[in-house]
UniProtKB/TrEMBL annotation:
The lineage of its organism: Archaea, Methanobacteriati, Methanobacteriota, Stenosarchaea group, Halobacteria. SUPFAM superfamilies: 6-phosphogluconate dehydrogenase C-terminal domain-like (SSF48179), NAD(P)-binding Rossmann-fold domains (SSF51735). Keywords: NAD, Oxidoreductase. GO terms for molecular function: (3S)-3-hydroxyacyl-CoA dehydrogenase (NAD+) activity. The keyword NAD applies. It is an enzyme of class 1 (oxidoreductase). Residues 3-181 form the 3-hydroxyacyl-CoA dehydrogenase NAD binding domain. The record marks 138 as: Important for catalytic activity. InterPro entries: 3-OHacyl-CoA_DH, 3-OHacyl-CoA_DH_NAD-bd, 3HC_DH_C, 6-PGluconate_DH-like_C_sf, 6PGD_dom2, NAD(P)-bd_dom_sf. This is 3-hydroxyacyl-CoA dehydrogenase family protein.
Amino acid sequence: MRVTVIGAGSMGHGIAQVAAAAGHDATLNDVDEERVAAGIEGIEGNLAGGVERGKVTPEERDATLDRIAGETDLAAAVGDADLVVEAVPERMDLKKEVFTDVEAAAPDDAVVATNTSSLSVTELASALEAPERAVGLHFFNPPHIMDLVEVVVGERTSGTTEAFAVEFVEGVGKEPVVVRDSAGFASSRLGVALGLEAIRMVETGVADAADIDTAMREGYNHPMGPLELTDLVGLDVRLDIAEYLHEELGERFRPPQTLRRKVRAGDLGKKSGRGFYVWEDGEAVRPADE
């Protein structure tokens, strides 16, 4: 299978890596050579870490990299694709534009998927002349580590497209859960609710970030606390999702002022080096308020 991923950021290059590791030919597309190169470097770094930990053999690393190509021209990237996955920023207008461009250049039978974590797949699909070919494939960060993928079925998604998506997810070694198109789907709706409440608790002085995260790890067996996870996802991304869920679902998703202030200050979490924690070499080393 030929898989094209549009958007070479952390989610995009992770999805391309997963596809290539499973034996598919993967093309990574973005708007310029610098971003494509950074995405491929990210894949190389992920694979190098896998080799160091004994999770990936050198032969598997080399075979995966051999199946990955970079391309800045979208039409060329999708021209022979069986599956196109967009992983561009969480903006409805941008994603619709990408969907329209993909449909104009991709084969008529290619499945067009979105990696959105919260936006309406039905609305995104409305940009297509053939909305039945659209589906949500919500991978989790980081895609090469996390097992879950939400297969989000829009109002016009065909049974054939849904079955293709589930088969693809299973084929790349992930666990699919099929959900109907609703704001925030299943995982983001619950995850964001937990994260926003944790931020409100910091804001009102109930406990600091480290203690809240420790409580959820040790008391509820979460692998990562909600505030460290917010840093990992990106505070700007979480704010965008919260704004959308607030609009769609009401006051319980209103973003806390602390989240807005941090985003305005450029404290975006892991990717900026500071959020609720200070990050060094990809690790949260101490709470930011110490």
